[in-house]
Structures are given as C-alpha cells and as structure tokens.
Amino acid sequence: MVAKRTTASVRHPSIEEAEDDLSIEYPSSDGEPMAENKWQYVAMTDTVSVLENRFLGRPDVYVGGDMLMYYRMNDNATRVAPDVFVVFGAAGKHFRDSWIVWREGKAPDFVMEVASPSTWRRDAGEKRDIYAGMGVTEYWRFDPTGEHFTPQLVGERLAGGAYQPITLETDNDGTLRGRSDVLTLDICARQGLELRLYDPETGQWLRTHRESEEALQAAEEEVRRLREQLQNLQGS
Question: From CA 160, how far away is CA 158, in angstroms rounded?
C-alpha cells in the first residue's frame, strides 16, 4: 500500500513566511556512528564513491552520504541523515558540514537508505514520508543482509505527491535490477546481496574504488612486463 504524502509533518516555512535566522547553528554531527555493521558500511561508502566518480565532471551534481540534512527553516532539531543522496542543480561541489535545504535551494533528487537492525523500520515509514514531503524524486532502500525485508531492494518514484513502486526485474543470474531515471543507471542487488550500479548505455558495471585500484595495478603491471620484454629484445 502506498502511503499518502504527509507534507504537513515535514514542511518548512518558505522565504515569504519567515526569514532565515543566520544566528542559528546547524550541527554537522548527531553523535551517531556512520554504520552499525560492515555490510551497511560497505554498501554506503561504495555507492557514494561510485556516484562521486560517475558525476566527477558535473559541477552541478552533488553526491553526499551520512550527512545531516535540515529541511525546516530555523529548526535545528528536525533533521534526517540520508545514507546516500544526489542533488542535480547544486551550487557546486564544495565541502559542506550539512545540507540545509532552503539555503541550497532544493532537496535531493535521489536518496538511498541502507538497512540496519535499528533503522530499517524508520526508513520504510517515517523517513519515507519525510522524503516525499521534501519532494525527493526517487527513494531507494537496500537490505545488505537480506534479514529485514524482501525483496532486498526497493525503489520508489514520486508521482502525484505519493511514492509509487519502481518495477524490478530478476536477471538469469539472480541479479535484482531496477531503473533509476534520475541517475540514468540500473540499481542492482547481485547474488550475495551486493549493491551495484550498472550503466545500460555502456553495458558495464560501474567500478568500486577497490576495483579501480585493482585495474590500475593490473595496468601498471602490464606496462612493466612490456618494458621488460622490450629491454630483453633490445639487449639480444
């Protein structure tokens, strides 16, 4: 059942209704750990890293993760901290302590929450309503352990003020796949509950940082091997 958009509970005053009190401080930390376990940590950090690399050449695209997000003007007690979020039309990639929606001029276009034992229920309920009220176009949830919800990947797109499910397909190898129109990528849960991003235009998986490092090391090793061969030929 699709929940109705609850804008009343998440709405922040507009510029016309209130002035931004610049004396209010918005903390950058809530004292909570980034992740509760290694599964959640890897899924979060790998996805943020992959998306940062994906949009490296786009100064108007900001990728963030585990950052406090304030969405009610002059209220520093009401906030969320998306595990992964992407904003198109951002005012640059400069470092931020937090994302203050009314100062940035917009909410994220894409949000993903990675399930943990203490957060997955709030992700599916309260946070879902908050993101709908903020106008987040796509909201995805991923369960890296498969212990909290089935299927382990859920995607929803905002339509008519409410989230509607994004159709997921299962590949022959068991990969669960859904299309993110916002990112123009496929969001996938591969066998072993691994969260991965796939570019349908190139037909390639986006590399994680570890895979990029391994590819670089392999390329460097190949260059050394070819140099040795050339030196041997020249010396013979």
Answer: 7
Nearest by Cα to 84 from 1, 122, 141: 141
Identity of the amino acid at 15:
I
Nearest CA to 6 out of 118, 120, 99, 133 is that of: 133
As a whole number of angstroms, the distance between CA 196 and CA 169 comes to 15
Q: Would you give per-residue pLDDT tens digits along the chain (236 residues)?
A: 333 333 334 454 444 467 999 999 999 987 776 677 888 999 999 999 999 999 999 999 999 999 999 999 999 999 999 999 999 999 999 999 999 999 999 999 999 999 999 999 999 999 999 999 999 999 999 999 999 999 999 999 999 989 999 999 999 999 999 999 999 999 999 987 899 999 999 999 998 866 655 555 555 565 566 666 667 777 66
CB 209 within 8 A of CB 218: no
Do 189 and 175 meet the contact criterion of CB atoms below 8 Å apart?
A: yes
Residue 188, beta-bridge partner list: 177, 196
